[in-house]
Amino acid sequence: MTSFEEAGTEETVTCLHLTFYHPCQEEKMMFRCLNFCKREQVRADETAKFGRDSSVCRYNLMDTRVSRIQFSLQFFRKLHTSECCFEIKNLSKKTKLTVNQMELGYLNKIDLPWKCIICFGDYQILAEIQEGESMDFFETYLHLAEAPILQERCLQPIPENGISPSFFLSQGKSPTEIDENEL
């Protein structure tokens, strides 16, 4: 037998891709302590903490408006399955954390969806989970976004007649109420 035949079967590793955005990144460099574009192994029994306290947090955000420990991610396996997931917990007493617009207060936690947007303050983080089989560790792969991940949209209800109020404003007229029988 060759050494190739004797080699152990290679396990795939769960990888958490995190893409960071902040509007002031270029001026304030709050992500300067993050290791971008390089996979980093994290033991499965470790909690990955994000915040500004480098003695506690594995991922440091250099911003005084960020809590000492902002949030944590815990790797786990679902009961009676081989499916691996992450749990996100808000560890900030002052700042609410949203995951796909679901608000988490202090010490609230939920399972991290396979693809989601995490927000706190002006920070936006796109999280995407790439499945793997390893139970011993997972990997993180950090990316830096140049444009906002979440675009704010001004949504206006469309009236029953199908004409948006912005149509009238662009015509220099204000909307007037009419009887639906007059249409």
Brief sketch in words of this structure:
It contains three helices and twelve strands; from the N terminus they run αβαβββββββββββα. The protein has 183 residues and is mainly beta.
- Calculate the terminal CA-CA distance, rounded to whole Å: 84 Å
Order of helices and strands: HEHEEEEEEEEEEEH
Shape: globular
**Low-pLDDT ranges:** 153-162, 164-171
Please, could you describe this protein's structure?
The protein is mostly beta strands. The protein has one domain: Sandwich (Tumour Suppressor Smad4), CATH 2.60.200.20. It is built from three helices and twelve strands, in the order αβαβββββββββββα. It has helices spanning 3-6, 25-28, 165-170; strands spanning 15-21, 40-43, 47-51, 59-60, 71-77, 84-90, 97-99, 102-104, 109-111, 115-120, 123-130, 137-144. Strands 2-12-1-11-10-7-8 form a seven-stranded mixed sheet, with no helix packed on it. The chain has a five-stranded mixed sheet with strand order 4-3-5-6-9, with no helix packed on it. A hairpin with a 6-residue loop joins strand 5 (71-77) and strand 6. The longest helix has 6 residues, at 165-170. The radius of gyration is 23 Å and the shape is globular. The protein starts with a helix and ends in a 13-residue tail after the last helix. Belongs to the TIFA family. This is TRAF-interacting protein with FHA domain-containing protein A. One of its GO terms (cellular component) is cytoplasm. One of its GO terms (biological process) is positive regulation of canonical NF-kappaB signal transduction. Residues 49-121 form the FHA domain.
